[in-house]
Amino acid sequence: MAIYVNNLQDKVEIAPDLVELLHRVGEATLARFGHGEAEAGITLADDPYLHELNREYRGIDAPTDVLSFGLREETPEEPAYLEPGPEVLGDVVISAERAVAQAAEYDHSLARELAYLAVHGLLHLLGYDHDRPEEAEEMRRLEEDILNAQGLKRDAAAEEHHREL
Fold first, then answer.
1. Within 10 Å of residue 92's Cβ, how many Cβ atoms?
2. Is residue 112 within a helix (H) or strand (E), and if so which, with residue range?
3. Binning pLDDT at 50, 70 and 90, where does residue 61 land?
4. Ramachandran category for residue 34: left, alpha or beta (phi over 0 → left; psi -120 to 50 → alpha)
5. pLDDT of residue 117
6. Of 53, 35, 56, which is closest to residue 43 (Cα–Cα)?
7. Domains plus CATH for the chain?
8. If 0-12 CB within 10 Å is exposed, 13-18 middle and 19+ buried, where does residue 130 land?
9. What is the CA radius of gyration of the chain?
């Protein structure tokens, strides 16, 4: 299994331990769902980069915190990705700037926020979504279970703040 982490931005210092955390959390997420041999990329970028991607691929002219680009989706325009070797799930792109702001807003560490965004994006690559309330609830439960298993628990005050939003 391989999680590839690429840092394209220079606005937020990303220490080696944060890169290692993204590897660990990513691998744990894929292994939990039986994709232990799969590959995925996690790219850290800045707000303008995610703004452009969001505009181009989702038609939303605003920055966002995380986007997922799956290779398992089949459409008439994009046939199945069939290459020999490990399953390649796709890429998750995270705004490091937005992660800093959200970590402050939710009163937790940058490490927890980056890990949360990585897990969230990887769950999208695995087919999870949050369009309907029951889907959102399931996705939130999975995110928290994975983060808790990695020792990245949300404290009670942050949890209460999140529920109020």
1. 28
2. helix 110-125
3. very high
4. left
5. 98
6. 53
7. 2-164 (3.40.390.30)
8. middle
9. 16
Neighbouring-strand partners of residue 90: 40, 70
Place of tokens 């959200």: 102
The pTM for the full model equals 0.88
Taken in order 94, 100, 106, 111, is the CA torsion positive or negative?
Answer: positive
Residue 5: phi and psi, rounded to 5, are -110, 130
Summarize pLDDT for 26-43 with one digit per residue, the tens.
999 999 999 989 999 999
- pLDDT tens-digit map of 77-101: 555 555 566 789 999 999 999 999 9
Neighbours of 29 (CB within 10 A): 27
**C-alpha distances in angstroms, 49 versus 5, 53, 63, 138?**
16, 6, 8, 29
Token digits for 147? 């983060």
